[in-house]
Amino acid sequence: MTRRGAALEMAVLGLLHDAPMHGYELRKQLIVLLGWGRVLSYGTLYPALKELVAGGFLDADPAPGSTGRNRIVYALTAAGKERFRELVDETGPSSWDDDNFGVHFAFFARADSQTRVRILEGRRSRLEERLERFRTSLVRSRERRDAYTLELQRHGLESAEREVRWLTELIDTERAGAAPGSSTRQAATTHTSTTTKETT
Amino acid sequence: MTRRGAALEMAVLGLLHDAPMHGYELRKQLIVLLGWGRVLSYGTLYPALKELVAGGFLDADPAPGSTGRNRIVYALTAAGKERFRELVDETGPSSWDDDNFGVHFAFFARADSQTRVRILEGRRSRLEERLERFRTSLVRSRERRDAYTLELQRHGLESAEREVRWLTELIDTERAGAAPGSSTRQAATTHTSTTTKETT
DNA sequence: GTTAGCATGTAAGGAGTTACATGATTTT
DNA sequence: AAAATCATGTAACTCCTTACATGCTAAC
Fold this sequence. Notes:
The structure is a homodimer. By secondary structure, chain A is mainly alpha-helical.
């Protein structure tokens, strides 16, 4: 029970809940799912899958499909679905960690409104705490800081404040009983039209 | 030569370049220096210091000062100053990594303008690459995504775009031969006045 | 005089990466 | 038939955290 990254566990279970997949495909989906610009490596994924199989959350079937190659298709077991539900319903500190918040958000559609609000609020207070501590330490030590250090801190502060405002908006929307992005914005695809160079 | 976190190494050398310090104090400074809301632990810091001493970059003096307690004050050696200079002048990919960029930026005042521009541009292209890949993958798979997934991705995209704009502004400022924050903005402390709730 | 905070360290382990090893399938 | 890319895995190593162990000093 080596506690293999809770975020990864939840993401894997959530994706396989939608549709069974083999590891290679799963990895690509995982990378897209969250802002994870970082590449999730096989050295992380395969051992994690192995453990989930050992724990009885996944079934591993040597794919009989398509061309009969050596792929292994993973699918959620009943225990896996139950485990995913537990994770989705979790509203403790672990759900608003830097690492876990993104995954929880990605599967918000599976949670009920109360859960969503609790997680969003938890996340917001965590950020506000950090912000507060940061501001105080800035005030305490403003001697001898050059323009670049100041700019770095100003930018950090601004980003964090923006994040807090984003969360506040989401909380308000949620309380009003609506889905995000339904009012003002066009959701995600305003840009995509230009710059479609395929430099792979 | 275990390659102990380049970011930590540079931050330690940079801070001790300004003023000798003992580990406990150093840790607090390190946490403030960057947006590091995360707590840098002693289990990371002390072994790192040990290694820098072993490498000849730091001198460790049992503090004879103040009350004669058991503190160890670290100071840069000549080799340490040289090493720091190397790190400051470095403009390769390592200088625009997620992990290292912040530290390099924090010590920008020590680098010359050319170095600064190179690092800023490197950082920007790295972010733009990521953005491009992200946008393409969004277009490729817009089926079956609920409002929350879309909102998460929209927000991620927006943050990254904002970051790129920030870098562009800095590059322009740098090319014009000015320091950041000198034109429009008031640098860092515009907020601090409101919201001073002390809910610890 | 005891609690809080200063100060230094070590051991174990968690969460991941890189590099390697291997082979099947598809594309050129 | 060669090259690309699909696909699965392991071993070694990195960087960091948590938890522990120790003792000194300041404040209440």
